[in-house]
Amino acid sequence: MADMLQIQVAYATAEREFFKDLAVPAGTTIGQAIIASGIAADVPGIDLDHNPVGVFGKKKTLDTLVRAQDRIEIYRPLIADPKEARRRRAARKPKA
């Protein structure tokens, strides 16, 4: 019997967080784990062709092999460009 790895798949919207704990066989990829989790049925907006993924905050590809205790994260697109948002905040700050 193949070794089973305990992992978690996570996705968050502005209103709710989704976590799926599951056991997958060694040699499973991130893409396979996401599909096996069934999270796409709970959140229809997930599109693995466009949503980046990662493990513990570090971007990874869908063909990366999972390891025991990994938390696979599916990221949403950014609403605002962080650099532009910082420029706007800096422009509103009074000059000293």
| Helix proportion range | 10-25%
Give the CATH class.
Alpha Beta
Order of SSEs: EEHHEEEH
Number of domains: 1
Q: CATH superfamily name?
A: Beta-grasp domain
Task: Please state the CA-atom Rg, rounded to the nearest Å.
Answer: 17 Å
Any low-confidence stretches, pLDDT <50, length ≥5? none
CATH fold-level assignment: Ubiquitin-like (UB roll)
Q: What is the spatial order of strands in the main beta sheet?
A: 2-1-5-3-4
Give the percentage of residues in beta strands.
25-35%
What is the rounded distance between the termini? 68 Å
Number of helices: 3
Summarize the structure.
With 96 residues, the protein is an alpha+beta fold. The chain is 24% helix and 29% strand.
Task: Describe the protein's architecture and organization.
The protein is elongated. β3 and β4 (58-60) form a beta hairpin. The chain has helices at 30-37, 39-42, 82-92, and strands at 4-12, 17-25, 53-55, 58-60, 71-74. It is of the alpha+beta class. A 5-stranded mixed β-sheet has the order 2-1-5-3-4, with helices on one face. It has a single domain (4-92), classed as Roll (Ubiquitin-like (UB roll)), CATH 3.10.20. It contains 3 helices and 5 strands. The mean pLDDT is 89. Helices cover 24% and strands 29% of the residues.
Record the SSE blueprint.
Layout: E1 4-12, E2 17-25, H1 30-37, H2 39-42, E3 53-55, E4 58-60, E5 71-74, H3 82-92
Parallel strand pairs: 1-5
Antiparallel strand pairs: 1-2, 3-4, 3-5
Main features:
single chain, 96 residues, alpha+beta, Ubiquitin-like (UB roll), 29% strand
